[in-house]
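Hello, quick one for you while I still have it in my head. Could you read through the record and tell me how the C-alpha cells relate to the sequence? No rush at all, and the record is pasted right below.
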Amino acid sequence: MHVDNSSENGEDVVMKDKLLPKMKQVSKCSYCENNSGESLKTVPCLECGSRCHIDCINCTAKFKHKILLGDDFFHFKCHKCTDGNERFRRYHLSWVDVVHITLFNLTHNPAARPSGADPSNQFGGEHGPQEYGDSRVYFHYKADVARFIDQHWAYFWTKARGETWINSASSALSTNSTENVPEDGRFESGKAKYNKNGMWALTDDLRFPSSYDSLQQQKTRTIMYTFAEDGSLIELRTQATNGRRKRRTDATPKAA
C-alpha cells in the first residue's frame, strides 16, 4: 500500500495539512462509473467528490470485506486524483461515530448481529431486533450495541477498553437522541416512546453517520491510522513541531 504522508526518515507521521476546498459529493463511482447512491459501502474522494464503492478501491482489496456498512470516516483520494497512488487513512472516531456505525450495521446486516451465549455475562438484557410500531428497528444498548462494539473493538481503535466504556456508549446514545436534539437527533429512545428500557433505534436508518457532522467537525477530523495489508489499524505517530504536538486534519466533502 502506498504511503504518502511520511517524514524525511520514512516514518509515517500525523501532521496538520492544508484544508481542502469543500466538494459536493457525486453519486457515481470513479472506478466502475456506476451509480453509488444506494450503496451502503462507499467513501467520498476528498478531491473530486466521487462517492466510490469500497469494493472498487484497489488499496482496500485485501480487507474490503472487513469495512462496515455506513462507515466512510476515511481520508480518501481516488485513483484518478492521485495518478493511481490512492490515499486511504482512518479518521479518529468519537463514541457517537462508533455507536452510530454499530446501529447502522445492526439494522442493515442481520448477519452482523451478536448471537449465541455471552460467556462473560457482561451484555445481558433484552435484545433486538424489536419493532414497536414506528417502522424502526430497536436494539438494546448493552446486549446488542455494546456487544457489537466489543466484538469489533480493534476495527475502531487501538486503545484499551476503559472500565466505563459501556457507559460511554450509552451516553452517546442519550446525548444525541431526539429528546436532547429535537431538530436533528440521530437516535430514537424506546424508553421515551414505548417504555422499553435500554432499546434504541436510528432516527433515519439510511443516513450515513458522517452526514451529521457539522462543517466545523468536518474541518477538524484528525487522521489517526493507516492500514496494514490485512486491514489492521496502524497508529500514526504524532510529530512534535516547535514544541507543540500537531495532528493532521483535512476537510471531508459535504453531502449534496
About this structure: The two ends are 30 Å apart (CA to CA). The helical segments are 95-108, 141-151, 153-156, 165-175, 190-194, 215-219. The mean pLDDT is 85.
